[in-house]
Amino acid sequence: MAYDLAKVTTNGNNLIAQILANKSSLSIDKIEISDTQLPSTTDISTMTSVPKVVQTVSANGFSKNSNTLIVSTVVDNSSIRADYKAWVFGIWGSDSQNGQSQLIAVITSTNSPDTIPAFSGRTPVSYTYKFNIGFSNASQIKFNMINGSFATNDTVVHTTGNETINGKK
Fold first, then answer.
1. What highest taxon heads this organism's lineage (predicted)?
2. 12 DSSP 8-state letter
3. DSSP bridge pairs for 106
4. What mean pLDDT do residues 6-19 have?
5. Are strands 5-8 and 102-108 parallel, antiparallel or unpaired?
6. HSE-CB of 125 using CA atoms within 13 angstroms
7. Using the 8-state DSSP alphabet, how is residue 21 labeled?
8. CA distance 127 to 76
9. Which terminus of the chain has a lower count of CB atoms within 10 Å, N or C?
10. Could you tell me which residues are beta bridge partners of residue 128?
């Protein structure tokens, strides 16, 4: 797997600027996954939707530093009936004050995406992803977490202090 191209959309940059100006919060509404490879000529910054969505998942954690948001998610195959290649991930977000969801970032593979297998009927397979998204002033962004989301070990360890879990600080 190689997810080697990640860009913030124009709408994403505008949304973050609006959130900072209004002192509101960012909600990560959903993450859409497409099985369609984007043409090399695609200008990701102008995208407003994800083509041919095959699965939608929730973000389950986040962290940030001065200029990067890190959004994590778990993709499982319990509802998948046919194998697919996860070429594109589209992260949707909204301002806590107006609630209109927009495509804020796109992460894609240019040559070797993960294959999400069809559910066998027995044990589901899960993949964990962390997406690093560059924004200036990211440290000033406040987040709203969606109900039903959960914190990962990394989220807990990196936001609560000096704890160590499984050897990670």
1. Bacteria
2. H
3. 7, 90
4. 88
5. antiparallel
6. 11
7. H
8. 6
9. C
10. 74
Q: Are 88 and 107 in contact (CB under 8 A)?
A: yes
**CB atoms inside a 10 Å sphere around CB 124:** 13
Integer CA distances (angstroms), 87 to 16, 42, 65, 98, 134, in order = 25, 13, 27, 30, 20
What's the confidence (pLDDT) of residue 55?
97
- The pLDDT value given to residue 152: 46
Domain boundaries, the chain: 5-160
Question: 159 vs 8, 49, 53, CA distance in Å?
Answer: 24, 32, 33
Give the pTM.
0.80
- Residue 13 corresponds to which amino acid? N
* pLDDT tens per residue, range 20-39: 887 888 888 999 999 999 99
